[in-house]
Amino acid sequence: QQRLAEEINSLLQASSITAAVLSQTIRADTELQTLAETYGISLGKASLIQKIMAENELLNLEDLVGLSINALNLLASAQNTELKNVASIGTASDKAYIGEEAAKQIAFTDAGVAEMEVSGLEIELDLDDGQLVYEIEFHGSGAEYEYELDAQTGTILKAEK
Length: 161
Fold this sequence. Notes:
The chain is of the alpha+beta class. The chain has helices spanning about 1-15, 30-40, 45-55, 60-65, 70-80, 100-110, and strands spanning about 20-25, 85-90, 120-130, 130-140, 145-150, 155-160.
């Protein structure tokens, strides 16, 4: 299993493709089989979702099933979720997303504060209603700000002062 994952990763790198290769051994129990059949997903994806939910009880099944394996991997990585019995080689591609740097600049611009005025900055990639979002909190110009941005487009979904 490890050798196969490494071979796939080598082929991807040789083609200049940024990707992560996840591998796991799955025992298809009734719960896992039902989950996969109910949502029309693979056993591997169902198992990955179960492992993510076991580590973060705030995430819900309906939101996770619509995400790609890459997005699930990014979310797990961003939240420092330990995926037990899942081997990961390489890095999940974040090219479809704006990135933390762009997200914070959008929030700072909207708030009308310069980066050097900001303190207590917290940025987290999270999931909200089945959509990856950047949650951004900071203090600046004597106020506290909270933003939620669409991780793909940078659209401000929520802004609170």
